[in-house]
TrEMBL record, chains A, B:
<comment type="similarity">
    <text>Belongs to the HAD-like hydrolase superfamily.</text>
</comment>
<dbReference type="GO" id="GO:0004427">
    <property type="term" value="F:inorganic diphosphate phosphatase activity"/>
</dbReference>
<dbReference type="GO" id="GO:0005634">
    <property type="term" value="C:nucleus"/>
</dbReference>
<dbReference type="InterPro" id="IPR036412">
    <property type="entry name" value="HAD-like_sf"/>
</dbReference>
<keyword id="KW-0963">Cytoplasm</keyword>
<dbReference type="Pfam" id="PF13344">
    <property type="entry name" value="Hydrolase_6"/>
</dbReference>
<keyword id="KW-0378">Hydrolase</keyword>
<protein>
    <recommendedName>
        <fullName>Phospholysine phosphohistidine inorganic pyrophosphate phosphatase</fullName>
        <ecNumber>3.6.1.1</ecNumber>
    </recommendedName>
</protein>
<comment type="function">
    <text>Phosphatase that hydrolyzes imidodiphosphate, 3-phosphohistidine and 6-phospholysine. Has broad substrate specificity and can also hydrolyze inorganic diphosphate, but with lower efficiency.</text>
</comment>
<dbReference type="GO" id="GO:0046872">
    <property type="term" value="F:metal ion binding"/>
</dbReference>
<dbReference type="GO" id="GO:0005829">
    <property type="term" value="C:cytosol"/>
</dbReference>
<dbReference type="InterPro" id="IPR006357">
    <property type="entry name" value="HAD-SF_hydro_IIA"/>
</dbReference>
<dbReference type="GO" id="GO:0016791">
    <property type="term" value="F:phosphatase activity"/>
</dbReference>
<keyword id="KW-0539">Nucleus</keyword>
<keyword id="KW-0479">Metal-binding</keyword>
<dbReference type="InterPro" id="IPR023214">
    <property type="entry name" value="HAD_sf"/>
</dbReference>
<dbReference type="InterPro" id="IPR006355">
    <property type="entry name" value="LHPP/HDHD2"/>
</dbReference>
Length: 237, 237
C-alpha cells in the first residue's frame, strides 16, 4: 500500500459517517466522540468538500441534525445523505406502497408516501417496534405478494449505544429474507448507489474521496473509526 | 421411484408430525385436521409402531398432549419426541447454562436447568416473547462469550395457525446468527440426531420407518401432509 501522503494526493472530498464516528447514540441524545466536533470544524474550514453519510434510520434528518448541533457540530440537514429519503425516491419511482416496519422517530420522512394496500415492505432500525406482531405483519404482507419486495434501510448487524451493543436492522432483514425465501434490496450503505448519491451532492468523483466510517466495535474492542480511500474497497461498509 | 406397495414392504414404524398433520394450532386449542383422529387410532391398532415427533416448542409436552387428547387423539406424553427435553439433555451433558428465549408455555420443561450466569442461548418459538428487548438480551449474552453457543429448537420458517401464517423460530435464529457471525446448533427436526432418538424410542431402524410431516402450506396452497420413507432424504425436514 502506498504511503499516506501519496494516497491522499488528489483527494477533494470527505464522507463522514455519523454514529460511531461523530457520536455514540444513547439516552439524553448520546455523547460526542472526543475530538470529533473539532475535526468536523477543521475539515469544513479546509479546501475539502464534506458530506455526512449515515445509515441512521431511527430519526428523521431534522431530528438527527438538531441533536448533533446541540452537541456542538457544525452540520445542516442539507449536508446529510440518509437512507429514508433515498427509499422514498425509489418508492415513488416504482409505484410502491410500503408497509413500514420503522421507528416512530423516522416516520415523518415518509409523510408523502402512500401506505394504503401495501405492495412492499420497508424495514429500518425499528428498535422496540421490532415486536413479534409487527414482524409478523410485515411477513404476512410479503407472503401475500406475487413478487415480494423487501427494502431494507441498511443491513448493519449492530451498533453501539452508550448503554451497550444494540441489534441493528440487518438481523431483522435476514429474518424476513429467510421466512419468505427472498432477498432484500438494501438502501443505504454499503449500496454503491447510496455512496454515489452522496458523491453527486458534493460534485466529487469516487477516486477523489476519503470515507470515515465506524468500525465494528467488537472487532477492535473500541470505537475507533476507520478511514478508507473510496477505491480501496468496492463497497465501503 | 418404486410403486407404493413395494416401497412400504418392511415398514415397521411411523413417525407422525403433530402441527399441520394432526391439528392446526390456534385460538381455543386449535382444530383437528379432518380424518386425523381416526388415522392415529387405526395406526395404533395396527402392527406398526407409532411415535409422535414434533418441533412444537411453545408448549410443554404435558400441555400439548392434554390439548390433543381434548381433540380426541389417543396420545400420551411418553409417546412424544420434542426438542425441549432433547435440548435439556444436551445442556446437562455439556454443562451449559442457557439464557432462555422461549415461550412461557414451554418454560416448565427447563425447570431442572441452571440458568444463572448464562454461557449459551437457547431459542425456541417464543411468539410474542420475541420482543426487541429479549432478542437484544440474547444477542448481548452471545457477544460476551468467547465461544458463543446458540441452540435453536427447530429452524422452521413459519407455521399455520387457524388465524393465518405465523413466524416460527427459524427467522429469529437467522437474525442472531447474522448479528453475532455464528452458526446455531439445531435441536429438533431436521437434525438427524433428533430423528434417531425418536426411532430408538420405538426400536425401529431408519429404513423401516415412514414419516408423516406437514408441508409448507404456502407451497401447496393447503395443509396437505406429506409422507416420506425415511431413506428418501437425508434429513426429513
Amino acid at each position: 500500500m502506498a504511503p499516506w501522503g501519496e494516497r491522499l494526493a488528489g483527494v477533494r472530498g470527505v464522507l463522514l459517517d455519523i454514529s460511531g464516528v461523530l457520536y455514540d447514540s444513547g439516552a439524553g441524545g448520546g455523547t460526542a466522540i472526543a475530538g470529533s466536533v473539532e475535526a468536523v470544524a477543521r475539515l469544513k474550514g479546509s479546501r475539502l468538500k464534506v458530506r455526512f453519510c449515515t445509515n441512521e434510520s431511527q430519526k428523521s434528518r431534522a431530528e438527527l441534525v438538531g441533536q448533533l448541533r446541540r452537541l456542538g457540530f457544525d452540520i445542516s440537514e442539507g449536508e446529510v445523505t440518509a437512507p429514508a429519503p433515498a427509499a422514498c425516491q425509489i418508492l415513488k419511482e416504482r409505484g410502491l406502497r410500503p408497509y413500514l416496519l420503522i421507528h416512530d422517530g423516522v416516520r415523518s420522512e415518509f409523510d408523502q408516501i402512500d401506505t394504503s394496500n401495501p405492495n412492499c415492505v420497508v424495514i429500518a432500525d425499528a428498535g422496540e417496534s421490532f415486536s413479534y406482531q409487527n414482524m409478523n405483519n410485515a411477513f404476512q404482507v410479503l407472503m401475500e405478494l406475487e413478487n415480494p419486495v423487501l427494502i431494507s434501510l441498511g443491513k448493519g448487524r449492530y451498533y453501539k449505544e452508550t448503554s451497550g451493543l444494540m441489534l441493528d436492522v440487518g438481523p431483522y432483514m435476514k429474518a424476513l429474507e429467510y421466512a419468505c425465501g427472498i432477498k432484500a434490496e438494501v438502501v443505504g450503505k454499503p449500496s454503491p448507489e447510496f455512496f454515489k448519491s452522496a458523491l453527486q451532492a458534493i460534485g466529487v468523483e469516487a477516486h477523489q474521496v476519503v470515507v470515515a466510517q465506524a468500525c465494528n466495535p467488537s472487532t477492535l474492542g473500541g470505537r475507533d473509526g476507520w478511514i478508507t480511500r473510496s477505491g480501496d474497497r468496492d463497497h465501503p461498509g
